[in-house]
Amino acid sequence: MLKYLKNYFTKIEKILWCSSVALIVISFFVFGGGSILTLAASLIGVTSLIFGAKGNPLGQLLIILFSVLYGIISFSSRYYGEMITYLGMTAPMAVFALISWLKNPYNGNKSEVEIRRLKKNEIPVIVLLTAAVTVIFYFILKAFGTSNLLPSTISVTTSFAAVYLSLKRSAYFAAAYAANDIVLIVLWVLSAIEDISYLSVVICFIVFLVNDIYGFINWHKMRKRQENSK
Fold first, then answer.
1. Residues 73, 66: contact at Cβ < 8 Å?
2. Ranges in the chain, pLDDT < 70
């Protein structure tokens, strides 16, 4: 298994994953990142991103696990928007995305999903669905007295777009996740102002942002390779 993983990832991907893990672990112990659950969620999350960047369904499986852990962490911080988003939306939709990726391997290779381009008539549907989800969640989060309501609502917007695009096997899902990372960085910076231990979570999402940018770039390369091979 270790030999397979060694040959599976490129040198850049190995450096990216190792440096990401190192930064997360170091920041956790330096800033006192709270429970071991936070560290576990961060490591699972960054590992899901490196597999996701390869179009590997294992990335979606790890996102489901990360969503559950992150939902629990968000609840403890009164970020009910994040909790509801990840437990009620991201995790269930990641299940459907996992099924979609497993059903659509590229050339029978179960380690790489077949990437597709969005059709023009799909774009308005995505925009309308995202807008509807945003409005609905705004009032739900407001009713729950969610901390930092505006960025929490925007997080719902970017999260929904990301998981929906994952389901559609579009390369732009990584761009939506990168946008979500930026929102989450803002959210946890606000928490870190009051409690410095949350700086470890901020660093975690900065690491996620770098990985999602790589995933976006790599998916475009994969899509071109897949289309050229046809």
1. no
2. 1-5, 33-34, 79, 81, 230
